[in-house]
Structure formats: C-alpha cells, structure tokens
Design a protein that fits this description.
Layout lengths: L1 H16 L12 E5 L10 H9 L3 E5 L6 H13 L5 E6 L2 H8 L5 E7 L10 H7 L4 H4 L1 E3 L4 E4 L4 H4 L6 H9 L4 E2 H5 L12 E6 L7 H10 L3 E5 L5 H4 L1 H14 L1
Parallel strand pairs: 1-2, 1-3, 3-4, 4-8, 8-9
Antiparallel strand pairs: 5-6, 6-7
Helix pairs in contact: 1-2, 2-12, 3-4
Length: about 250
C-alpha cells in the first residue's frame, strides 16, 4: 500500500519538477537511504527515482523498527553490499541510525533530512524531552506492547500537511510502529565527528521542530539547506533533497 502511494506521488513530482542534473564529476555512485519511524523504505521513493535517473545506484534500507541495534544492523548490511564508496542518508529517526552506522569506512558523507543527529550517549527520548514540544510529539501513542505510532487523526496535519489529504490519511492508517526501546537507546558512536555532514531542514515541520533541526545542523557543522516543507519534505521536496545528496556525492 505504502509503496504504491509513494511511487504514484513520485511519478507526479518527478514529471512536474525534475530537471536534468549535471553529475558527470561525481565521485560517489552509491546512495544508501534510511527511513524514519512510522513509515517504510518506500517513503524515499520520490528521491530515489530522481537519483536513479541521474545515474546513481540507490539502496533503500528496510528498517525493522524493533530496536536501534536492529536498524543499525540492517543499514550496515546495506553498506557492506555496495561496490565502492557510499553517501549515507537518514530521515527523521533514520538520522539516529546513520549517526551510529556512519563510521563505516565506505561512508564518505552523511546527509540528514528533517532528522535527529544525536551526540554519543544521547537518545531520541532524551532529545525529545529537552527539545521543543511539538504537536507531532504530543500525538505519539504507545500500544499495549510498547510500540509507538502517531495518532491517525493527527497524522495528516503533524506529519504530512503538504501531502495530498487522501494520501496522508492512507499513510496514517498504514503506519509501521517503532519499538519504544529504540527511542530510549543511547547512541554509542557519533559518525558526524569524522564524516562531512549535510542537513536538509524542513521549516514547517510539526514533529521535529525547525529550531531543533537548526541546532543539530549547527552542532554537527553541517552544510545546510532549508525547504518550506513538513516532516514529509523528502516526498514533497524530493528534488531539493536529491540535489543535496548529489552535492554530497560530488564533493566527497
């Protein structure tokens, strides 16, 4: 269901906004995309379609969302499968995963998209408590087994306000919950200390406040790009996100 929705939206976005990119001089051809909580890897499909059209080899990591260790293991496996250097990209919760997994020698740069960028010893739970209390954070609900999701009634507005309403509502109804222990797990490595970093800030994000995104970007000394998008900017502003990823490939 999610794959069909994102693929359909990707086609519309690419058809209306994609312009040829000059990438002849890129040094890296492999892009590994790590998705966030509550969605699956097809959330990256609009960006992946642009990158593939521009000649990149793209891998979409399928996070189990059962623990930080499990998601890092899935990402590490994807990196190991690449033939050559990699640009590692994370959206939202995926930023935590790439922070932990990004020290791999194949990884040449990190790209954060509306993402958490923790320091060693920090958890998303701690960052959330210390950061801005957004409507999106307020809408997170645990189930009886401790898996977290966004209140479906709030999801369209707090996650995907600029996505067509029918698609946003369907995404809300087909969420992939995240184990609460993942949010509570502390990062043991912060790859951004040793790898060049880039950050796409979503200025209309109602889950991860833009002020907090600016804080992360500043702390990790990232090259920063802002888009006037929601937390789902990787879908609606796929062209802008793809351009940042291509820039990271060209510069590293």
């Amino acid at each position: 269901m999610l794959r069909k929705l994102y693929s359909g939206l990707a086609g519309l976005l690419v058809a209306t906004s994609l312009a040829p990119s000059a990438i002849a001089a890129e040094k890296v051809k492999n892009i590994v995309l790590v998705h966030g909580a509550f969605v699956d890897e097809t959330s990256w499909q609009p960006v992946a379609q642009i990158l593939e059209k521009d000649g990149f080899h793209v891998t979409l990591v399928k996070n189990p969302l059962t623990s930080l260790d499990a998601d890092v293991a899935a990402t590490t496996k994807a990196i190991a499968a690449q033939k050559g250097p990699v640009i590692l990209v994370g959206h939202s919760w995926g930023g935590v995963v790439i922070t932990e997994a990004g020290s791999d020698s194949k990884v040449k740069a990190l790209v954060y998209v509306s993402a958490f960028a923790p320091e060693k010893g920090e958890s998303v739970a701690a960052l959330g408590n210390a950061g801005t209390k957004t409507p999106g954070i307020a809408a997170i609900r645990p189930d009886s087994k401790g898996y977290l999701s966004i209140d479906p009634a709030a999801f369209p507005q707090v996650i995907a306000a600029d996505v067509p309403p029918s698609i946003a509502q369907t995404l809300a109804s087909n969420q992939l919950p995240l184990n609460h222990t993942a949010f509570e797990a502390k990062v043991t490595n912060a790859a951004w200390h040793t790898k060049p970093s880039y950050f796409v800030i979503s200025e209309k994000d109602k889950l991860l406040d833009p002020k907090d995104q600016h804080f992360f970007a500043s702390r990790i000394k990232a090259k920063t790009t802002s888009v006037e998008g929601s937390h789902a900017s990787l879908v609606v502003h796929a062209k802008d996100v793809a351009q940042v990823i291509e820039k990271a490939a060209e510069e590293n």
